[in-house]
Amino acid sequence: EIVLTQSPATLSLSPGERATLSCRASQSVSSYLAWYQQKPGQAPRLLIYDASNRATGIPARFSGSGSGTDFTLTISSLEPEDFAVYYCQQRSNWPPGFGQGTRLDIK
Amino acid sequence: QVQLVESGGGVVQPGGSLRLSCAASGFTFSSYGMHWVRQAPGKGLEWVAFIRYDGSNKYYADSVKGRFTISRDNSKNTLYLQMNSLRPEDTAVYYCAKDFPKGNYYMDVWGKGTTVTVSS
């Protein structure tokens, strides 16, 4: 089973700043990695699929990069609505597991 | 609009059973695989089970294998999760989610979830 490790656990930034979130896989997942956003009391929302493709309706300030074992989600300029928990998920190997999440807090 | 609505959650004693339902609308339910994903209180997301569009194949997390059964009724646009031999560690919000057509085994539409509490 592939283990996804996200860092940092918590990231405190101000609106307008750039956010960089990391997800590392215990073995290669090629480009089969997605990112989700979850706000309190809400279901997750798919942001990025296959490492770098934005899902429908996702703003251009969200971008993903990486392949193999190291992946990054970048939010170029934080908006107030971006403060949430972010999860990565791989679909390369069964089962399709999630990372433990990164909480993005307002500084 | 595309929508998933879960129901059937509640409080159940350890060893008990519960059946969750997920009503789908706004898309051709019979064309897509479907997932159950859960989230324990204050914790992260855990994938639970997947069923192919026609119900031909089903897959489970090791933590629920042999206790949970995923099924679907395409004539009713409804997904199910039968949960037996429930344990306190099964306490969570259970989400149903649609499989993403541009990348199977990602999830692009989620319900709001239904809460299951296993406690004596």
Q: Could you list some keywords that capture this structure?
A:
heterodimer; A: about 110 residues; mainly beta; 6-stranded mixed β-sheet; 10 strands; B: about 120 residues; 7-stranded mixed β-sheet; 4-stranded antiparallel β-sheet; about 50% strand; globular
Termini separation of chain B comes to 40 Å
The shape of chain B is: globular
Q: Helix share of residues of chain A?
A: under 10%
Helical element count of chain B?
0
Indicate the proportion of strand residues of chain A: over 45%
Largest interface: A-B, 24 and 23 residues
How many strand elements of chain A? 10
Number of helices of chain A: 0
Oligomeric state of shown chains: heterodimer
Q: Strand percentage of chain B, roughly?
A: over 45%
Global mean pLDDT of chain B: 97
Radius of gyration of chain B: 13 Å
Strand tally of chain B is 11
Largest sheet of chain B: 7 strands, mixed
Give the termini distance of chain A in whole angstroms: 36 Å
Poorly predicted regions of chain A: none
What report would you give on this structure?
The complex is a heterodimer of chains A (107) and B (120). Chain A starts with a strand and ends with a strand. Chain A is globular and about 35 Å long. By secondary structure, chain A is an all-beta fold. In chain A, strands 2-10-9-4-5-6 form a six-stranded mixed beta sheet, with no helix packed on it. In chain A, strands 1-3-8-7 form a four-stranded antiparallel beta sheet, with no helix packed on it. In chain A, 36% of the residues are buried. Chain B has no helices and eleven strands. In chain B, strand 4 and strand 5 form a beta hairpin. In chain B, 41% of the residues are buried. Chain B has 120 residues and is mostly beta strands. In chain B, strands 2, 4, 5, 6, 9, 10 and 11 form a seven-stranded mixed beta sheet that branches. Chain B has a four-stranded antiparallel beta sheet with strand order 1-3-8-7, with no helix packed on it. Chain B starts with a strand and ends with a strand. The mean pLDDT of chain B is 97. The chains are: A mainly beta (107), B mainly beta (120). At the A-B interface, strand 4 and strand 5 of A face strand 5 and strand 10 of B.
